[in-house]
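Form 12-C: Joint structure prediction
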Amino acid sequence: TQLLEQSPQFLSIQEGENLTVYCNSSSVFSSLQWYRQEPGEGPVLLVTVVTGGEVKKLKRLTFQFGDARKDSSLHITAAQPGDTGLYLCAGGDEKLTFGTGTRLTIIP
Amino acid sequence: DTAVSQTPKYLVTQMGNDKSIKCEQNLGHDTMYWYKQDSKKFLKIMFSYNNKELIINETVPNRFSPKSPDKAHLNLHINSLELGDSAVYFCASSPGRRVYGYTFGSGTRLTVV
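Section 2 - Result
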């Protein structure tokens, strides 16, 4: 069974600060995805990374896939209250296995 | 125009009842899924259908029976509901069997009392 551990589990920071969320596994994944979920809604896909070492940027969000394709990170620069939500990494071939989640709160 | 729509949004029912959740996608995707999100927000796959064919059936009690009348619809019927079935159930779709980005519905919060 492929497991994806995310850290930290909870993160609460002030608006304007930077933060990094980690997603780690002992398994190799062909690709990893990051989702954001807001209360009462389903997860929404942010990005897919497929190549070891790949870095993708989405405005203030930077996603990195580890060289060995076992881990990934999400860095947010100058966090804003709108970034608040549950961040989930996910990986797999025919089915997505989701990580344990990071609940992020940005305080205005 | 909602891409993946689930009904109902909320479902409160008594133990022992039978209930159904419906899901429809208008994205033209071939593959649909049911996921269960527990109280700790952990998402776990239950079933997957590709072009109406069941391709993934995780270790889910056989009280749960999915049905896909066509590739745009995937319903979930639950018999003899138990307290532990309380959770949020998400339907999702993707273009094909290999993992692409999933599009999720907004979820059905099931509460068994």
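Section 3 - Comments
The CA atoms of residues 88 and 97 of chain B lie 24 Å apart. Chain B has a mean pLDDT of 94.
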